[in-house]
Specification:
With about 200 residues, this protein is α+β, with helices and mostly antiparallel strands. The protein is about 25% helix and about 45% strand. It is built from 2 helices and 10 strands. It has helices at about 5-25, 30-55, and strands at about 70, 75-80, 85-90, 95-100, 110-120, 120-135, 140-145, 160-170, 175-195, 200-205. Strands 1, 2, 3, 4, 5, 6, 7, 8, 9 and 10 form a 10-stranded antiparallel beta sheet that branches. α1 (about 5-25) runs antiparallel to α2. It is globular and about 65 Å long. The termini are far apart.
Amino acid sequence: MFRSAEIHKKLEGAIARLRKVVGHRDGDGGQGYAARAADFLQRWENRTKHLERELKAPEPKPLELAIGGAAPIVDWLAARTTENARLAATPVDGIKAFKVSSQGKDPCTGSWRANVQLPPGHYRIEAKAKLKDVVATGDDAGVQLRLSGKPTAQKLAGSQSWVVLEHEFVVAEVAQEVVLVAELRNSAGQVWFRRDAFRIVRLPD
């Protein structure tokens, strides 16, 4: 049984004990440590809530689509890879969106992710993104839409308004779960992904 409340209580106790030591070392009463610890606890709580929902949910069924058919993708989870990445579900231009931004001018990596169970076939995922002052660092950097563990050819930077992102892929032989990734990768700046524009399309094999 997953006892998140018990684990949370132990984490809080450990953080309180460490705050005294770190505060004495840093000379700030542990304020800086407390802020970082609070951020860690918030991310841990978000993750455990997601896991608890997954444990209670029935076994997922593959998303069956006819050739040319499409379905929206609505269940997304924030994933921060670098500490300076900021993620929020917040509107822009009056449109509901998922935002990823860098804190400061240093590049960051952060994403929104969705798990989808798919039968064998040829697919395309689609999204729309608004970019502001995105500065990419490296060949694999920029605003991207891809599968976890897989590269994509389309990488965006600069400032653009609701540009279309697309990525094609194949699920071979047996049904499998894929992780869709809408990402600001190794980049500074801001990007918003329209929440109503995420969809997956079945293509001819």
